[in-house]
Write a structure and sequence with these properties.
Layout: H1 2-12, H2 19-26, H3 29-37, E1 80-89, E2 100-104, E3 126-130, E4 136-142, E5 147-148, H4 154-161, E6 167-168, E7 172-178, E8 181-190, E9 209-210, E10 213-214, E11 223-226, E12 229-231, H5 241-246
Parallel strand pairs: 1-11, 1-12, 8-9
Antiparallel strand pairs: 1-4, 2-3, 2-7, 5-6, 7-8, 10-11
Helix pairs in contact: 2-4
């Protein structure tokens, strides 16, 4: 039976459906790997938390003008949002110019662009932006919508056997990078989402829960979201010489 189930994972996979990764997600494997890979002795300084990449990232998302929009197609029932904030150096607090802010999200129907070719063009709700000279960014996106993982394959069978629901809380995917800093891949979640504590892929972390607020006097947006990011320099280990001595490690020279 186990071999048959493994075979069914391969049979259910297509170029746009990675059932193997979905199985890894629902059993918590990808989240566990994320926790291990990004574990850091912060020594009082906390970089932005990471979260799982998921199966929907694309390397082909276009760069867009700062202040532009990733909403390329109609999103019935969606809530356009101005997302803005600052990317800063974890250690100095200074803004990081020219950091790349890569964002992708599902539309208001819970589907990503390549899952929904009848309603979405390529790279709808995807885009890359560069921070300005002060490390600041702003662009338009949607307040995200919760959605169900597909249940017509092995992942759905497994969830049913485990008596678990297939829902993911609403979320926006982010990947922030700069040549001189450690990149972070993460997700952010509206604090009013009902699935925060039961995310079927275990990706929610407390500091990734954010507050979408009403926005006034902006014809392009109903909601406002401020989200600031802290990146650690590439040389940062999270352990100062003092704390290394305390825990019995030799300081790096």
């Amino acid at each position: 039976m186990g071999v048959k189930f493994v075979n069914s994972i391969g049979q259910a996979s297509t170029p746009i459906r990675n059932e193997g990764q979905r199985i890894s997600d629902v059993i918590g494997l990808e989240s566990l790997v994320d926790e291990i890979a990004h574990a850091m002795l912060s020594d009082g300084a906390n970089p932005t938390s990471s979260s799982i990449l998921g199966p929907f990232w694309s390397p082909n998302a276009p760069f867009r003008e700062l202040g532009g929009s990733i909403i390329q197609d109609p999103a019935p029932g969606g809530h356009p949002t101005l997302m803005h904030g600052k990317v800063t150096d974890l250690l100095t607090g200074k803004g990081i110019p020219n950091a790349v802010f890569d964002i992708w999200q599902a539309s208001s129907n819970g589907k990503y662009d390549f899952q929904d070719p009848d309603n979405q063009t390529d790279n709808n709700l995807r885009g890359k932006f560069r921070t300005d000279a002060n490390g600041e960014y702003h662009f338009y996106c949607l307040k995200p919508t919760a959605y169900s993982l597909p249940t017509d394959g092995p992942a759905g069978v497994l969830l049913k056997l485990l008596d678990r629901h297939p829902m993911r809380p609403a979320h926006i995917h982010l990947m922030i990078s700069h040549d001189d800093f450690k990149p972070v891949t993460t997700q952010i979640f509206p604090k009013d989402d009902p699935y925060l504590t039961t995310d079927t892929v275990f990706a929610v972390k407390d500091d990734l829960v954010v507050d979408f607020l009403p926005r006034k006097d902006d014809p392009k947006a109903e909601m406002d979201l401020e989200y600031n990011v802290k990146l650690a320099p590439k040389s940062y280990t999270g352990v100062s010489p003092v704390s290394q001595t305390t825990i019995g490690l030799e300081p790096r020279l």
